[in-house]
UniProtKB/TrEMBL annotation:
It is a multi-pass membrane protein. It comes from Rheinheimera muenzenbergensis. Its main location: membrane. PANTHER family: MEMBRANE TRANSPORTER PROTEIN. Belongs to the 4-toluene sulfonate uptake permease (TSUP) (TC 2.A.102) family. It is found in: Cell membrane; Membrane. This is Probable membrane transporter protein.
Amino acid sequence: MQQKLKQHLWLWLVWLAGFYAVWLYLVIGLGYWPEAKAHWPIAVAMAIGSYAAGSTPMGGGTVGFPVLVLLFEQPATLGRDFSFAVQAIGMTSASIFILARRQPIAWAMLKGAMLGSLIGTPLGIWLIAPYIPGLWIKLVFAVVWASFGLLHLYRLNEIAGHSGMTEFNEKWDFNVGCWLGLGAGAAVAAVTGVGIDMVLYTALVLLCRTDLKIAIPTSVIIMAFTSVLGVIVKNLSTGMQPGVFENWLAAAPVVALGAPLGVYIVALIGRKPTLLVVAFLCVLQFFWTLYSERASLGLSGMLLSTLAVGICLLGFEHLRRWGAKLVGYRSENAAVERHVVNDTNTVTSQTSGVK
């Protein structure tokens, strides 16, 4: 097995060498080192963010967005575009590492999500994101991530206890993934720069009862795909926000190694400790957002934001119950099929005996 891993990890090493060659050309050959050096704080923050990106279903923007927007008080649009840009390196690096290690992936649902994202993300960038005010971008991020964190704080043992994956049929998985990718790409990723990975992951663990060893690598790959797509679409049409490139120069060499490191380390120490820490940070950033925007939101705005978190949690619970019903139906059908097969075998053996 180790020999097989070594035969494929060279692909990741080639990618890594190519990326660092390009980065060195930018900072040394084209003289961008002063810009990269001046933005060292985001590189420090992304050392943590990239580890979370590779070891959890939360993209690197989960740390990059609140650090830039809440801590450094940069525009939410900058946080969104930076998330796309930095994940295009970190999550891609982690994805190549995952594929090189031949980790199990929920391929049918992933392929559907990629097709949905291919359509939904550009549509969201062109038709939705430009009309979302900066405050709303912050709140969408805060609400979605807080509800996701709370889900893990009270359902982690159940989620971590899943083994394998409940596969209904490839066509069903593909169609579900397609609709999820379309909706999350347009309404979440295009607005915040992150989130489609969390949506797909949630469907896998709540609807399909998928093992974390399958669900998290699958979520990493869809975020890498969507981030690269987002960078391409924005550069060819709307353009990236000022300041993204300078922050990217500082953070990119960190996340290129940090995200795959998260993939590797979490396989040694388990996923539950990391998920608990990141879930706590997701909830913390929600209260941080409400506090920093209290003047704009007022009491009514803060209450509505809290209500939105509750609605998301109800949606998660509905998805969980739906998944339980689907698993039950599948088990019943499998039992009926086994019974039919056994009856057929019995009749066949009796017929053979008569002859």
